[in-house]
Design goal:
46% of the residues lie in helices and 14% in strands. Strands 1-2-3 form a three-stranded mixed sheet. Strand 2, helix 4 and strand 3 form a beta-alpha-beta unit. The longest helix has 20 residues.
Length: 112
């Protein structure tokens, strides 16, 4: 995972340093529809989380605004049926990202 080494995502960077978990900038990722579908949108919103990708060994990388929320981690693991690895992203980017994912999916479906 690429670290988010620039300003504008302060809460993610702070939590990254606090918990020793990589911080990411969600704008740098294209999230595939099949990855986004692994966690129901209402649960992702409630947990301030966004599935990002799967690793070669099958783990699901999930960006969370609060990586210390163990109850949310358990819910995300149960919903996806996969072991998860948490990275940190700003709460604002997680809240806005579902709109970007939905827009990208819409555009892919409407292009010839």
């Amino acid at each position: 995972m690429k670290s988010n080494g620039h300003g504008g995502h302060g809460d993610g960077e702070y939590l990254s340093r606090q918990f020793g978990i990589p911080a990411i900038d969600l704008a740098e990722f294209v999230i595939a529809d099949e990855i986004a579908a692994l966690i129901p949108a209402d649960l992702a919103k409630r947990c301030s989380a966004m599935p990002i990708t799967r690793t070669s060994d099958g783990m699901l990388i999930v960006a969370m605004a609060d990586p210390d929320d163990l109850a949310a981690r358990e819910l995300l693991t149960a919903a996806s049926g996969l072991e998860i690895e948490v990275v940190v992203a700003s709460r604002v980017s997680i809240v806005l990202d579902p709109f970007r994912v939905a827009h990208a999916a819409c555009c892919r479906r409407t292009q010839p």
